[in-house]
Amino acid sequence: MPDEDHSPEPFERAVACVIPAKDEADRIAATVDAVHKMVGVDLVVVVDDGSTDGTTEAAERAGAVVVRHERNRGKAAAMETGAAAVAERDGARPRHLLFLDADLTDTASGAGPLIEPVQTGRADMTIGTLPAQIRADGSKAGGHGFVVRLARAGIQEATGWAPEQPLSGQRCITRAAFDSAVPLAAGFGVETALTIDLGRKGFRILEVPIEVRHRATGTDLRGQLHRAKQYLHVRRALAARSALPADGGGPSLRSLFPRRLRNEH
User: Fold this and answer.
1) Which distant-in-sequence residues (6+ apart) come within 8 Å of 233 by Cβ?
2) CATH (residue range 15-263)
3) pLDDT in tens, 52-81
4) pTM for the whole thing?
5) How many C-beta atoms surround the C-beta of residue 84 within 10 A?
6) Residue 150 pLDDT greater than 60, yes or no
7) How far apart are CA 132 and CA 177, in angstroms?
8) Which has the minimum average pLDDT: 13-22, 38-47, 92-101, 134-143?
9) For residue 145, which of 230, 210, 206 has the smallest C-alpha distance?
10) Helix/strand/coil (H, E, C) string of 164-231?
11) Beta-carbon neighbour count of residue 259 at 10 Å?
12) What is the largest distance, in Å, between two alpha-carbon atoms of the chain?
């Protein structure tokens, strides 16, 4: 546990929702509208991370404060930019931070249960556990699970705790906890690293079931490449924290890439 007690008094602090977004013009307005309906949230900040499709304009029309990166800088940078924008608008007592994905649309309001444990001081960070995500063709999403297994094993190696959904980006966190983890790990390793860094510092982390749905990663070449990149980023974050599991981090780099892609080289 930290030497200083950072727990707020019950329901004393408001919550700001930070939504990193890249080319989400078709979905961001519905997500912002849903977040505006959440009890306790009084500020919605969308960080447009180099979009080229009108994401900024759609978010502004929906009533969000928008901060724009002229080029894509990645999720961690977007989270830090959003948190800084919130800090500029905070009063004497800083808001808690709710991080949500941009593609949740009207289901974003289902993330509400993440807030209460942080507001009441039961947790310094909550992590949303999502129901099974279903693709457009009716199949269950989630790839082969090797990235989840790697992240879970690494977090357990570092902290002794094995979260159910270590890669979930739906999180509510106190300002004190967030600031203690800055600078955030780059790329897709940000969630894994954040959990390890806070866990090692004694902050209280709680998984909370939430009913939200986002765009599921496909099984095509693009989806496979996404998972390979995600795996590499998570592995890098674990290695930087001396938290690689005993088996060295799971499958080989070669095995992550689709056979069709390997045969082209």
Assistant:
1) 186, 187, 188, 189
2) 3.90.550.10
3) 999 999 999 999 999 999 999 999 999 999
4) 0.86
5) 14
6) yes
7) 29
8) 134-143
9) 230
10) CCCCCCCEEECHHHHHHHCCCCCHHHHHHHHHHHHHHCCCCEEEEECCCCCCCCCCCHHHHHHHHHHH
11) 9
12) 59
To which residue do tokens 């998984």 refer?
207
The model's pLDDT over 80-94, given as tens digits with 9 standing for 90+, comes to 999 999 999 998 899
Query: In the predicted model, what is the mean pLDDT of the chain?
Result: 87
What one-letter code names the amino acid at 189?
Answer: G
Q: What does the block give as tokens for 201?
A: 């510092």
Place of tokens 């690689």: 244
CB proximity list for 188: less than 8 A, separation 6 or greater: 75, 167, 229, 230, 233, 234
The amino acid that residue 94 corresponds to is P
In angstroms, rounded to a whole number, what is the distance separating the alpha carbons of residues 101 and 60? 17
